[in-house]
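Table S4 entry, DoxX family protein.
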Amino acid sequence: MAKEINIPENPVSKFLFSSTKAGWIWLFVRLYLGYAWITAGWKKVNSDAWVGENGGAAVKGFVTGALAKAEEGKDVTGWYATFLENMVLPNAKAFAFMVAFGELLVGIGLIVGLLTGIAAFFGAIMNVSFLFAGTLSTNPLLFILATWLVLAWKNAGWYGLDRFALPLLGTPWTRKGNEFVGQDRNNTSV
């Protein structure tokens, strides 16, 4: 039976992804991303072409443009074009609702710092979906920042609701008096 070897974390990544002192850095990233998502989602939720009487029309137009790019051999791979054509296009209205309200929920989650890692993950999934469909815009930057927030899930919401919610969900923090401490695998304080 092989013995497990624990490799210590380097000081920079330990600070960025585990220290509550780095929470200020992630607060600014969260607010920037949250604002981007909530404004995009709010526009969609209030748009007739997304969730109104003509719900799905915007998605149909977007997918049609992506399929045209795929036919020209530009920016959209064949497997993703197949997904868009056979899954998204026939269900454009459902996807329009998912995108509009998904963007809004990701934005709210990031701004208030609630389930930050999960919110950032779903934001990154949407960014990748837009990138696969051939839309560059701010998606690469938003994807990178969301990925960093996913990596920093333990401390990215420290200055937000995660500070209170994550301990209730059984995450790596426990309260010792007025101080939060991490736990190692043996549930001993570190």
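The first strand starts at residue 173 and ends at 176.
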